[in-house]
Amino acid sequence: MKVTFPHMGTMSIAVKTLLTELGLEVVPPPPITQRTLDLGVKNSPEFACLPLKLNIGNYIEALEAGADTIIMGGGIGPCRFGYYGEVQKDILRDLGYDFNMVIFEPPQGHWREFYQSLKLLLGNISWTKLYTAWKKGWAKAQALDQISKLTNQSRPHLVKRKEATKIYKEGLELIDQAQSISETEAVVKKIRTDFDSLERIEDFQPLKVGLVGEIYVILEPFTNLHIEEKLGELGVLVDRSIYLSEWIEEHLYLGIFRDNKHRQHIQELAKPYLNHFVGGHGLESVGETVMYAKEGFDGVIHLGPFTCMPEIIAQSILPTVSQELSIPVLSLSLDEHTGDAGYITRLEAFVDLLARKEEKEELII
């Protein structure tokens, strides 16, 4: 059995470690490139979400590399993600590929079905081995999020901002290569030390922008055209609303490993504008925008795949939030036609707007 899975940001590093520790032969899909996108667009329904198209591209490239088993997550609610696995399976089989697909549906209390999927993939594995593998993969997922936060917090303050991306990429490689939890933790300490050693701009107060929206386009730099890097190099401190480890805790394990007070808080903040679940991260996009407004952020950028129903609902509500709470919001829909030049122009214009707004407020004070 040669196992593969879709890319979503840095997820492949943690998932590869987990599956390898479980004794599986792992064939990660190659890094996402234009070829990946072209393969997905060519073989997917025209109005399918961008993540589905990229998943198809991931699978084709992995199957070409020798994979024979695909691991895919399932979903519930109005978001089309719940149909991804079955749709992708039919597309790939129509293309002539021979493979098995194991779909892990959210347990939602039905642990027997979840266990059966796990058993189909792993056979009769001991809980001790499963726990040990989980700890190593989990340590890497947390480390990846920590160096991402360090990078976003440091980049706008640096004299040479491009150095931040260089250090971040080095951190990704070192975490991928780490053989133990202690080695993984040592990488985070090294990255923190590396950032502390760089020359910083004195007395610089960066603009603060929150990033909200659909999880895939937020976590996958290829889809959002490396928005965190671009904003950071414009002197903006970016705070991403969701990280991989948080998503794993909340959506795969239903808050078993941590309480859900933050999620409940976000839902309460969203209530005046949206008081029920609409699928995906639509409700969170509204609540987190309110949160950023209350925390004094200068603006919010809202990302969603073109045709994504939950984010379309959020996008229709965010202008009201923006007006009532006096926080500028830029909504960007992303698909295979999104161009880098126009995208950068919109980001630069938004950052310029935020800077002018801040200057006016200082003059009033």
UniProtKB/TrEMBL annotation:
InterPro entries: CoA_activase_DUF2229, Dehydratase_Activator_Redct, FldB/FldC_alpha/beta. Keywords: Kinase, Transferase. It comes from the Bacteria. The keyword Kinase applies. Residues 11-71 form the DUF2229 domain. It holds the Pfam family HGD-D. This is Predicted nucleotide-binding protein, sugar kinase/HSP70/actin superfamily. It comes from Orenia metallireducens.
